[in-house]
Specification:
Elements lengths: L12 H8 L6 H9 L8 H10 L12 H5 L6 H17 L14 H12 L6 E7 L5 E9 L9 H11 L3 E7 L9 H17 L2 E8 L4 E3 L9
Parallel strand pairs: 3-4
Antiparallel strand pairs: 1-2, 1-3, 4-5
Length: about 230
């Protein structure tokens, strides 16, 4: 295989970026710049080709994780972290809402616009809680569970414990439906009812439970399904 040092200087990825602009680089050249160096017998560009050969199209890079990269010979922990950081930065640049920290939440739509880019396309269910002050401004949020959402996992103890630690006055819960249908399941109804009842006992308001997909959302509060 051809090593980067054997490629004429002007044809190397970094030099091509400088001379012709980043938009004119191929996908494997961009990956080569992120990887910086190759391995014995393989250039950084060769490693880029190996990564791209494992996915159907460039958009699938959004779905890769550490486990995926560990399976590719020559892609060690350092290169994996560099690539995943670059991918995450790209995702954040393209988010419709950059942050909700210190933002006053007045509608489920604002919550949806932030989390659809965060978990809307995840292949597993991600369950978050948003913690708010008395003015409904966001103090923070926390990923509490990954996997199929059910009551045995989504226990009020874990959700409200964080509320006390942050001094929160209210909570909104969010999780995604990987299948693309935002309508709540029986489990979703049961979880929401239990959280509403727990909030009345524990003295922290439970404002809403929002189910998110990449294209739409379902708010229990907006649909007036449960007596909050």
């Amino acid at each position: 295989m051809v090593k980067i040092k054997d490629i004429p200087t002007l044809d190397r990825p970094r030099e091509r970026l400088i001379n012709y602009g980043v938009e004119n680089l191929s996908n494997e050249e961009l990956l080569a710049i992120i990887f910086k160096t190759g391995t014995k017998g393989e250039s950084a560009k060769d490693l880029g080709v190996k990564v791209l050969s494992k996915i159907d199209n460039i958009k699938k890079l959004n779905d890769i994780n550490l486990e995926f990269l560990k399976e590719i010979k020559g892609i060690g922990m350092s290169k994996s972290c560099d690539l995943l950081a670059a991918i995450e930065l790209g995702k954040r640049i393209n988010r419709e809402v950059d942050t909700i920290k210190n933002v006053k939440l007045t509608s489920a739509d604002l919550v949806y616009k932030y989390y659809k880019d965060k978990i809307g396309d995840k292949l597993q269910e991600y369950f978050y809680a948003i913690y708010l002050d008395s003015g409904k401004k966001v103090i923070g949020d926390k990923l509490l569970f990954i996997g199929t959402v059910n009551y045995s996992l989504v226990h009020p103890r874990e959700i409200f414990k964080e509320a006390y630690l942050l001094g929160a006055s209210a909570i909104i819960c969010i999780h995604n439906h990987p299948g693309g249908n935002p309508l709540p399941s029986k489990q979703d109804y049961d979880i929401t009812k239990n959280l509403v009842e727990a909030s009345k006992i524990l003295g922290v308001k439970f404002l809403d439970h929002i189910i998110i997909t990449k294209k739409n959302y379902y708010s229990f509060l907006e649909n007036d399904d449960i007596n909050f």
